[in-house]
């Protein structure tokens, strides 16, 4: 078993910038979709170097993953996702899970887990690993 060196599965260090192709592969969308999102979500602004090559920072990657989740998992429209990001302050770490509904009744009542409980669990797990 190798020691963890902080790198990802693709050999890049954690926090390294990703090229557009790498990010597209990571979240499972074509590169033209990422370029389209840049025109519709003003928060998504990767660095552009010579030849207009795009490089996504860690916060851009998190935002692109959040956009993907809103559009492809939760089923938002582009306009709906823009409003959700504006309402959230574009916080990429706060992924809201929608409760499925039939009419006005939730399918599963009380299925959500409070954030405080999740944070406490994460802290307990981190302490156990140390």
Poorly predicted sequence stretches spanning 5 or more consecutive residues:
1-7, 90-111
**Record field, number of beta strands:** 5
Give a short account of the largest sheet: 3 strands, antiparallel
Q: What is the chains' assembly state?
A: single chain
Average per-residue pLDDT, rounded, comes to 76
Estimate the global geometry from the Cα principal axes: globular
Q: Give the strand line-up of the largest sheet.
A: 1-3-2
The portion of residues assigned to helices is 40-55%
User: How far is the N terminus from the C terminus?
Assistant: 18 Å
Question: Which structural class matches the secondary elements?
Answer: mainly alpha
Q: Measured on Cα atoms, how large is the radius of gyration?
A: 18 Å
Proportion of residues in β-strands: 5-15%
Number of contiguous helices: 5
Order of helices and strands: EHHEEHHEEH
Description of the molecule:
The protein has 130 residues and is mainly alpha-helical. 46% of the residues lie in helices and 10% in strands. The chain has 5 helices and 5 strands. A hairpin with a 3-residue loop joins β2 and β3. The radius of gyration is 18 Å and the shape is globular.
Structural features:
5 helices, 130 residues, three-stranded antiparallel sheet, 5 strands
Write the topology of this structure.
Layout: E1 18-19, H1 20-27, H2 31-40, E2 47-49, E3 53-56, H3 58-73, H4 78-88, E4 101-102, E5 105-106, H5 115-129
Task: Summarize, please.
This protein is mainly α. 46% of the residues lie in helices and 10% in strands.
């Amino acid at each position: 078993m190798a020691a963890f060196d902080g790198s990802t599965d693709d050999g890049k260090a954690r926090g390294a910038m990703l090229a557009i192709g790498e990010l597209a592969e990571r979240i499972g969308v074509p590169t033209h979709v990422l370029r389209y999102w840049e025109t519709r979500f003003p928060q998504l602004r990767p660095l552009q170097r010579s030849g207009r090559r795009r490089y996504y920072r860690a916060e851009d990657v998190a935002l692109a993953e959040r956009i993907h989740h809103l559009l492809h998992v939760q089923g938002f429209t582009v306009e709906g996702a823009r409003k959700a990001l504006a309402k959230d302050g574009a916080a990429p770490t706060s992924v809201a899970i929608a409760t499925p509904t039939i009419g006005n009744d939730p399918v599963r009542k009380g299925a959500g887990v409070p954030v405080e409980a999740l944070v406490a669990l994460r802290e307990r797990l981190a302490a156990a690993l140390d």
